[in-house]
């Protein structure tokens, strides 16, 4: 569902808990600045330890509108501790009330942290206790580079996968705008085969991003053409469409291959990958952490939000 800034607060109504992430991008503040603070009972910003100082400034911008905004610090590159922190926070929260209405701004969580948060929320004790709306502020353009260098490539906690030693390795890539990350992941896994995906033109955020993604995709497709078993398209707007696309690929190749998925595009397509991982315990999801982010020229946000009902996504 698409809602513009002027109508978002009225559409959402009263919110028992608002969760967001600090970030160096302006996009981290846009939803928090658009909400009616009088309709929010509790608000929490999860703040990455040892991050850029501009992230603190952006939290303060949100707090100027939502004055009761709390800050919870979580550790960098410590996925198990991050899982525990989310779990304990939500467990304490649901113990305080009947079924609650929760709004989560997923825009500037890292893909790994978002996947971990969704895994926690998928647990029965939480999905039966909260109605969760996920909000995403799309970027209307990207700079020439987003990140530089790869610190570590690892499986995402909660999505480790059950692999058979007798099977070959298949890497499913949802390519985006960071070819260095794509190449590092491919070279690290050395897969027997690759399924390389690109955003469909009809389900991209806009035509400019679609064209830029096409150029990035063509480069990877040419570099690794001998390993690419199949090409596919996915949606950057429809979580379930992306989920179904990947599930069809898994059904096609799972008997022969162990499957690893690398979500390298936007958070909407990453949510589609999360749904796949939750439904398929044999699938592993991987993440490449970056050494450096481009804080001088970051993506600019659109003037609207995309909303998703997490409870409906998990039951689909």
Report on this structure.
- This protein has 316 residues and is α/β, with parallel strands linked by helices.
- The protein has 2 domains: 2-141 and 298-309, Hypothetical protein VC1899 like domain (Restriction endonuclease-like) (Rossmann fold), CATH 3.40.50; 147-293, Rossmann fold.
- The chain is built from 11 helices and 15 strands.
- It has helices spanning 5-12, 27-34, 53-65, 79-94, 111-121, 124-127, 179-189, 207-223, 239-253, 267-279, 310-315; strands at residues 2-4, 17-21, 43-48, 69-74, 100-105, 130-136, 139-141, 147-155, 168-174, 193-199, 228-234, 257-263, 284-293, 300-301, 304-309.
- It has a 7-stranded mixed β-sheet with strand order 1-15-6-5-2-3-4, with helices on both faces.
- Helix 4 (79-94) crosses helix 5 (111-121) and helix 5 (111-121) packs across helix 10.
- The protein is globular, with a radius of gyration of 19 Å.
- The two termini are 16 Å apart.
- The model has no long low-confidence stretch (mean pLDDT 92).
